[in-house]
Write a structure and sequence with these properties.
alpha/beta, Rossmann fold, 5-stranded parallel beta sheet, 6-stranded parallel beta sheet, 13 helices
Length: 319
């Protein structure tokens, strides 16, 4: 059986599957600068990571017995896929496991911005007893999401999961995806069955012009941000931007400028350029709802990720 290093941890559900199959799983965190030597010295057959550990050519070339790199989550931007392919190392991710959790976080940021929860939660503990009326007044101009138009850029699993939530909340949904023409979005209503809504994708410029809220669900861009100053200029005044995808999908400097000019109404950000050291201007901006890259960080998603990762990795090891 094989030695597996889960360098960013693994849910007990996945750990159990590995152990029942006779594999040895190490969950101790190996520092990035010592990872290549560890892989070689311990003859690791499979390396499991999330977003914290980077798998570069150095790690991939450290030990010829490394057969699999498994990424718990969707994005593979922290794995050198070209080198892995060259060396015959399988690269696996878990695209189906975290869609609902990421979609729910995107909705949470929308609701926070719509009702100023991101600011009242910051200030109520410190001045709620002395400036209650002021805080109430500042938060009294909230909006309802029902009836608003949500534009979803990237209409894969996560985008479709978000569309179902938005439709269930009475929102109009527009979508853009160069690889998808239309989708039958499933709205599962517990205890009542499933309804289906056909959503046709449209050109991105058209989506930007019509949407009150933009939510991005695309991979990390190679050629610059997906949403920059030009794209923000197309959006209606007061539009909101939600990014739970990857840092760099949105031009952060352009976003701050557009908010300061009063054109963009606010943003919900779970991901940042330069993680784990985001720009403090974003963290402290009164129009930005922030979270620390927790899109897939729910008990349910981590359980599904652990199982999917274990099943895929063991299949790759056996091939």
């Amino acid at each position: 059986m094989s030695l597996i290093l889960a360098n960013d941890g693994i849910d007990p559900s996945g750990l159990k599957l590995f152990q029942e199959a006779g594999h040895t799983v190490i969950t101790d965190k190996v520092p990035q600068d010592a990872l290549a030597d560890y892989l070689r010295e311990h003859q690791v057959a499979a390396l499991l990571v999330r977003s914290a550990t980077k798998v570069t050519a150095k790690e991939l070339g450290a030990w010829p017995g490394l057969k699999v790199v498994g990424r718990g989550g969707v994005g593979l931007d922290n794995v050198d896929q070209a080198t892995a392919k060259q060396r015959g190392i399988a690269v696996i991710n878990t695209p189906a496991a975290s869609s609902e959790s990421v979609a729910e976080l995107a909705m949470a940021h929308m609701y926070a911005l719509a009702r100023f929860l991101h600011t009242t939660n910051r200030h109520m503990p410190s001045v709620g007893t002395t400036e209650f009326d002021r805080l109430k007044k500042e938060a009294s101009k909230g909006i309802e999401l029902r009836g608003r138009t949500l534009g979803i850029i990237g209409f894969g699993r996560i985008g479709q999961a978000l569309a179902a939530l938005a439709l269930g909340n009475g929102m109009k949904v527009l979508a853009h995806d160069p690889f998808v023409q239309h989708v039958r979005v499933e709205l599962h209503i517990e205890g009542y069955g499933t309804a289906y809504v056909k959503v046709d994708t449209i050109p991105v410029a058209e989506l930007l012009r019509q949407s009150d809220i933009i939510s991005l669900h695309v991979p990390k861009p190679k050629d610059g941000p997906v949403i920059g100053a030009l794209e923000m200029a197309l959006m209606p005044k007061g539009a909101l931007v939600i990014n739970t995808a990857r840092g760099g999908v949105v031009d952060e400097a352009a976003l701050i400028a557009a908010m300061e000019e009063g054109h963009i109404g606010g943003a919900g950000l779970d991901v940042f350029v330069g993680e784990p050291n985001p720009d403090e201007r974003l963290l402290n901006h009164p129009r930005i709802s922030v979270s620390p890259h927790i899109g897939a960080s729910t008990n349910e998603a981590q359980g599904r990720i652990g199982i999917e990762l274990a099943e895929k990795v063991m299949a790759a090891l056996a091939s």
